[in-house]
Amino acid sequence: MGIMNNSSTDPNKILPMKYKWARQHYKDGVANNWTPEEVGMQKDVEQWKSDSVLSETERRLIMWNLGFFSTAESLTANNIVLAVYRHVTNPECRQYLLRQAFEEAIHTDTFIYCCDTLGLDPDEIYNMYNTIPSIKEKDEFVVDLTKNVFDPNFKTETTEDIQKFVRDLIGYYVIMEGIFFYAGFAMMLALKRQNKMIGIGEQFEFIMRDESVHLAFGCDLINTIKSENPEIWTPEFQEEIIGLMRKAVELESTYARDACPQGLLGINSDQFIKYVEYIADRRFERIGLPKQYKTENPFPWMSSSTDLSKEKNFFETRVTEYQTSGNLDWD
Ligand code: FE
Ligand code: MN
Q1: Is 267 helix (H, G, I), strand (E, B) or coil?
Q2: CA distances from 291 to 80, 90, 129, 280 (A)
Q3: Cα–Cα distance for residue pair 21/3, rounded to 1 Å
Q4: Cα dihedral sign for 248, 254, 259, 265?
Q5: What distance in angstroms lies between residue 290's CA and the mean position of ligand 2's atoms?
Q6: Of 36, 108, 214, 324, which residue is 20 to 30 A from 205 by alpha carbon distance?
Q7: Gap from CA of 208 to ligand 1 centroid (Å)
Q8: How far is it, in rounded angstroms, from Cα 219 to Cα 215?
Q9: Annotated catalytic, 173?
Q10: Burial class (CB within 10 angstroms; exposed 0-12, middle 13-18, buried 19+) of 20
Q11: How far is residue 162's CA from residue 118's CA, in Å, rounded to a whole number?
Q12: Could you read off the pLDDT tens digit of each residue along the chain, which spans 331 residues?
């Protein structure tokens, strides 16, 4: 009995559980419960309204990241509910998917809260995925990669169809949440380290912690489908996936340069690009593919940025305590 569509699976019978990692990710998600309103925005509002605190470069970076994330979160939510949930019938995985869908609603709410408190023009922010080419290209890349799976007649029966489904999972979990989110995370957290827009920065930290669990679940799901259907993992398919992820790194590098052309105090945009390469190598390894860049982490502080006082035993920062699926080398 497998993790995907299977007539012998009763989707309502969650006990006994077969995939304990799915249960652990669910618990990790619950342990990181938060809402955007818990984070005060007064200082951010003062800085945003002041003419002297933020440079034009910093304002551009903030706008680009709000513009990208405001719509990327709902693209991800739609994929979970309309594509992944239909085909992953295993009940403990579905329990996690419901939790993840809730977290995506929280993330969507975060950007509503940011627009409201800073007094941003919603038509501008929520259209940036059409009007800003470096954002549009990222979203279109993922949507193109995954559109087969949205066909109501799509089924995961043949080898080719399972490959299409895995391509969808890689598109959303590994590329969208695992690569396309990370230049933005690094930029907003770098700004926070300079004491700028610390409320939004803290919200990005909460989101990053959620996303790292989404990514971990997605990789466990992908690896389980691979081990249950080993015929899909051909050398050609592996080459295709490597090519797609390398293309994603290019798109993310273009985005990083566009969002932050001059760099930030003490940081140039090449470092954001190196960070994306470093993060992409971790994703390659996590799904059983060779590292492509062997770039060193230019921002070692990123892995400790998620160590909030609210939940200090989180696996991003205490990697050795996190052993549900034997993946101790993860960020
Ligand atoms: Fe999210
Ligand atoms: Mn997510």
Answers
A1: strand
A2: 28, 31, 30, 8
A3: 12
A4: positive
A5: 25
A6: 324
A7: 8
A8: 6
A9: no
A10: exposed
A11: 44
A12: 689 987 777 888 899 999 999 999 999 999 999 999 999 999 999 999 999 999 999 999 999 999 999 999 999 999 999 999 999 999 999 999 999 999 999 999 999 999 999 999 999 999 999 999 999 999 999 999 988 899 989 999 999 999 999 999 999 999 999 999 999 999 999 999 999 999 999 999 999 999 999 999 999 999 999 999 999 999 999 999 999 999 999 999 999 999 999 988 889 999 999 999 999 999 999 999 999 999 999 999 998 765 444 444 444 433 333 333 333 344 4
Q: What is the CATH number of domain 42-304?
A: 1.10.620.20
pTM for this predicted structure: 0.91
* Nearby residues for ligand 1 (ion, Cβ within 5 Å): 73, 104, 107
Per-domain residue ranges of the chain = 42-304
Q: Under the phi-then-psi rule, with left for phi > 0, alpha for psi from -120 to 50, and beta for the rest, what region is 195?
A: left
Place of tokens 């800073």: 118
Check 26, 96, 113, 275 and give the catalytic one.
Answer: 113
